[in-house]
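Re: that chain you flagged

S.,

Sorry for the slow reply, it's been a week of failed gels. I finally had a moment to sit down with the sequence you sent. For the record, here it is as I used it:
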Amino acid sequence: MWLTRDDFRIKAENFDLSNGLNIIRIICGLFLFPHVAGKFAAGAVSAGTAGFFAKAGFHPPEVWVYIAAFSETAAGLALVFGICTRFAALGAFAVLAIAVYSLQVVKGFGWTWNTGGYEYPVFWALTSLAVAIEAWKAHLRQASPKISLARANAAT
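Prediction finished late last night. Pasting the structure tokens below so you have them in one place:
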């Protein structure tokens, strides 16, 4: 029930843009890539990013920047391609929730976008959570007939 072979298949239906959830899923994934790129300058960890991670309490900051970049890249690719969507969206939610926490630690409350507030990461995290919930619901709907059939076969 956790992971199936089907979770790793790239399917045409994952790119059906008449399904609004696909559009949101793909956008959630695509928006992670500039977020990753912003952590680096000239092929190395940006000094500003390392300083931010240090102020947020992540030590050693450079290691945590790479962990964040890897996590965001993996979640972004999986969301864009529709691979392991329910887990990728939960991962994106977790990464963004940590980003919101970090912004709170470093900058304090700031609900204004033009001063680096965290309303955008909050919205993005909640959108990723909504994608995860819908992906879990779809997975459970697909699994339910199989579970019912397996129970019926076991009873006979």
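What I noticed first: The radius of gyration is 19 Å.

Talk soon,
D.
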